[in-house]
Write a structure and sequence with these properties.
Layout: E1 3-8, H1 15-21, E2 24-25, H2 32-40, E3 46-51, E4 57-70, E5 80-95, H3 96-101, H4 109-112, E6 118-121, H5 123-133
Parallel strand pairs: 1-3
Antiparallel strand pairs: 1-6, 2-5, 3-4, 4-5
Length: about 130
C-alpha cells in the first residue's frame, strides 16, 4: 500500500462537500509531478485530505477507489484523475504549523514542496500525522 496527500482549497472543494458527495474524481491537476503521483496511485491506497490556503490543516483520510484515467474536464491527454472516497475525519485537524514543528515530518513534501497538490508520503509520515490528529 502507498500513502498520499492531496490538497484542496476548502472554498473550491471542502472535506464537508467530499463527504456529501461520497466519492469524486480528483481533477484539475496541471503539474507534471502531481500528475505522475496520480498515475502511481493504486486502488486501496490511503490519502490524507489537506485544506490549503484557508485553514492549512490535514482534515481527513480518503482512499483511492479507481486508478488513473483521462481527466474528463479536458481533451488534453496529458492529464489524469483518480477516484477518491472519504474514509473518516481526523478528530483533531493537523495544522501545517504542527507538521513543520515535528522533527519526524521535516522531510514531507508538504513542507519541502508546498505548492505541490498531490504528493506521496512514507508510511511513517502518514502514521505520524494520524497520531497527531487522533
Amino acid at each position: 500500500m502507498n500513502y498520499w496527500l492531496v490538497k484542496s482549497e476548502p472554498f473550491k472543494y471542502s472535506w464537508d462537500q467530499f463527504n456529501e458527495d461520497k466519492e469524486t474524481f480528483w481533477d484539475g491537476v496541471r503539474n507534471y509531478q502531481a500528475r505522475n503521483n496520480l498515475r502511481e496511485m493504486k486502488k486501496g491506497d490511503l490519502v490524507l485530505f489537506y485544506h490549503s490556503n484557508e485553514g492549512k490543516n490535514v482534515v481527513g483520510i480518503a482512499k483511492v477507489t479507481k486508478e488513473h484515467y483521462q481527466d474528463p474536464t479536458t481533451d488534453d491527454t496529458n492529464w489524469v484523475v483518480v477516484n477518491l472516497a472519504p474514509v473518516e475525519a481526523l478528530k483533531n485537524p493537523v495544522s501545517l504549523e504542527t507538521i513543520k514543528a515535528d522533527d519526524r515530518l521535516k522531510d514531507v513534501s508538504l513542507v519541502k514542496q508546498g505548492r505541490l497538490s498531490v504528493m506521496s508520503l512514507k508510511a511513517v509520515e502518514f502514521d505520524r500525522i494520524l497520531e497527531l490528529g487522533m
